[in-house]
Amino acid sequence: MASISARRLRKELNEIHAEGCPCGIKLLNADNFETWFFSIEVLGESLYQGEVFKLMFRFDANYPISSPAVQFVVDQNIQAPIHPHVYSNGHICASILGTEWSPVLSVSAICVTLQSMLASSKAKERPVDNDRYVRTAPDNPKKTRFQYDDDTV
Amino acid sequence: MMNDSGSAKPPSPPRLRSANLPEIVDRPYTDPEPFLSGHPILPEDMDINDFSLAQLHEMNQKLLEESMGAEGPLISWPEDISALRDEYSNLPDFVAQINTLSNQGYRTIIRVKGDGDCFYRALAFIYLRQLICSASARSLDQLSATKTVLADAGFDEIAYDTPYDLVMGLVKSDSAGHELWNTFTDQSTSNYIVMYMRLLTSAHIHLNQDFFSGFYQNIASDSETSNPLAKFRRQFVEPLGKEADDIQVTALVQALKFHVKIAYLDGRSPNGQVNFHDFGLDAGDAPGNSEPPVLLYRPGHYDILQKDA
């Protein structure tokens, strides 16, 4: 019998195949129940017009009880968006991916939230502590303990 | 906005969505909400004073869990209550209360792991055991009614149908004895049952906001959000590992339409008296012909108490 996390992810995938992703989000790869990739862009007017980013989701066996590890992909072809909550290594500082994760959320819901985080951005800049964080950041953003205090998206 | 530029186009009807915004699938609960962001805590900057109360609470709970040891089962096999008495042998007020329980016929305790989920796990266990034992079509109706609560609260079906199917499968499998215990000791299955109970608790609080906002005032004082109850559900009800307070206990018992007694073992009664509190029995309800199941509460922890072995 498939694990419960796999059963849940299978359902999410079926829903994505049947209903499509939210606008501006495309499923790039979901060959297994461990790592999924999506492309994400902000439609309409925003600071990121015409830019396409790539999101990586990593799931463990406790998904959706535990949150997925979500980050922007950074490699020679693609960069993370320049945004006050996005580090240059692709890690994202957002409480819904940490202390405010709830099993009620889903992969699509996270995509939509991140899209709206980009859409409402007023300044294209990196977080102030970017360089310090990136120097010592763990591979998996879930291993970072974030202090959430800034309520302005 | 009105368009006065002289075009012959009739004004378009009011729309909820602006054409400039991304299409959002109609899911009331999962619509993007503003979330907190901040900065990572780097090891060289760690200082206990920088942590928020919620973070300290979380760290405290982790420590408590670790100190309880990872080796204990999620739910123990029934034990004689004398084992509990032995643990408190140097605390006479507790011993007196345990003796009172024992004299009232409560001879057995089923221990539930103290991992922050003990209330939900204990209640789920006695609730499902009762549903399975009564083995009637009504049991299945009762359980499927809980799914309606989740739907009414606007939860995305994908969030609850996997754990619901699991719980329903369990009730249909008609295995109340050893197999139910096995199910509850399997980490993954057991936690999904807990998750279902938590979602149900959250949904019930959402659907009865007026009633529960009264409970909530003391907890909400530090919150500045526009909907503190929603935030409370997100932070303290839905995630596993967050202990249940009175508000969650009341909500879940109501949502399950269940009746349970909770015995308070607190070492605070000089004559060994034990207070029992009824949950889920309204004044108008006729008490069932059988005695309701009993949870044993020690400050911060729930176990199951029973008369038979």
Automatic annotation (TrEMBL), chain A:
Q: Which portions of the sequence form the region Disordered?
A: 129-153
Q: Which UniProt keywords apply?
A: Ubl conjugation pathway
Q: Which SMART domains match?
A: UBCc (SM00212)
Please verify whether the record's keywords include Transmembrane: no
Q: Which CDD domains match?
A: UBCc_UBE2W (cd23808)
Q: Any keyword Transcription? A: no
| Record-linked PROSITE patterns | UBC_2
Q: Which Pfam families match?
A: UQ_con
Q: What positions does the domain UBC core occupy?
A: 4-153
What name appears for this protein in its UniProt entry?
UBC core domain-containing protein
Q: Which organism is it from?
A: Paxillus rubicundulus Ve08.2h10
Automatic annotation (TrEMBL), chain B:
Database matches in Pfam families: Peptidase_C65
The reply to whether tRNA processing figures as a keyword in the UniProt entry is no
Locate the OTU domain: which residues?
107-308
Q: What is its EC number?
A: 3.4.19.12
What is a single molecular function from GO for this protein?
cysteine-type deubiquitinase activity
Note the PROSITE patterns from the entry. Answer: OTU
- What PANTHER family does the database record attribute to this sequence? UBIQUITIN THIOESTERASE OTUBAIN-LIKE (PTHR12931:SF15), UBIQUITIN THIOLESTERASE PROTEIN OTUB (PTHR12931)
Q: What is this protein called?
A: ubiquitinyl hydrolase 1
Task: Please give the organism.
Answer: Paxillus rubicundulus Ve08.2h10
